[in-house]
Each structure stands twice: as C-alpha cells, then as structure tokens.
C-alpha cells in the first residue's frame, strides 16, 4: 500500500522493540507545509511518533488539502476527497509504523483544524483526541455526514483574540457543539491573530503530554 500523501515523520530515538507509541497526525494551514506544523510539537519527539502530512495541492508558496470557493466555504469535491485520503493515510501509517491504535491524535491549524474536527466526527472514538487551532466545523459536516459518537474523545481548542479570518465567535460555536458530545473539551483564546503564538504552542504540548499519559496509566492499571 502506498501513501496518498507526502509526509515527514519522527520516531522516538530510543524506540523499544515491540512497543507501540502514541502518534500525532499534524495538518498544516493553507499555504503552509508539513514542516511548519511539525515545529509546533517538536518538544514531544521523544514521547510521540510525529507525522506531519503535506497537502497534496499546491497553493502559493505552500500546499493545501482542498480548495476554497471563498474563506469559510470549502469546495465540496476536494474537501470530501481529502477526508477520504486522510482516513486512508491514517490506516497506512498505523500499519506501517509502531503506532498505538488506541492513542492517535489529530492536530491542525486553520485548514488543518477544520479537517481535524471533521475527521474526529467521522472517525469517532477510534481516535483518542484532537487539537484544533483557529478553525471551524463546516455546516455540511454537521448536517450531512454520518457523525459518530465522540464521547471518549479529549479535545483542545484554541483561537486568536484578534483573528480576522475566523473570529472568536466561531471558536465559541466549536466549543458549544463539541462540548456537548466529547468526553472533555479545553478551550483557550490567546492575544494573537490567525497564528499559533508561543503560549499556545506550550499549552498544546503540555495538554498532549498530560492526556496521553493518563491513557497509558489506565492501560498499565488494566493490563499490568
């Protein structure tokens, strides 16, 4: 099986034989690349398998996963195609690398956040959690897709207080929608625009480290 996307991967250097590791699938924003989003979680490289997925479409000096009719209105054909390709890619990577299938996270900024939240609703509790920064859930995902239960998902949402593309009101809508469905939702805003500020990055790393550690502790208590 071949990967439908180009990607960058970092596997913990002290990997143990026959051991499975938590994984973060990182999705960049439109016009960016996989290296941009990979840098956000670089501090977790000894604890997680980090996989940054490059969008398969060219956009300005970077890449995209789908095209836009205008901001906030994805082209449905390329959006749906990207969702299908990402699901295939996640299974490809889970089978190819020493990934713990019970400890898979999606992380995305802007277009990557939109896809992360949409994928979470499609995949349900087969993933552990998501980090979504400065994005939204398209109405057609909520209304037309076969949304699965996410009552075991942990979610970290964040927005910039001065984001002129996706204002904080959209982030609050994300929180209300997901908080009524997910296991837990942490929502924070930062004094920033449409970007990932340093404080946001530090909080993301701390949240992922803490959430994954809780799962591993529960697994040890059950199976150890």
From TrEMBL:
Q: Which Pfam families match?
A: Abhydrolase_2 (PF02230)
* Keyword Ion transport belongs to the record: no
Keyword list (alphabetical) reads: Hydrolase
In alphabetical order, the GO MF annotations are: hydrolase activity
Q: Which InterPro entries match?
A: AB_hydrolase_fold, LYPA1-2/EST-like, PLipase/COase/thioEstase
Q: Where is the Phospholipase/carboxylesterase/thioesterase domain?
A: 27-208
Q: Which domain of life is it from?
A: Bacteria
Does the UniProt entry include the keyword Hydrolase? yes
Regarding protein family, the annotation reads: Belongs to the AB hydrolase superfamily. AB hydrolase 2 family.
Name of the protein in its database record? Esterase
Q: Which organism is it from?
A: Paenibacillus validus
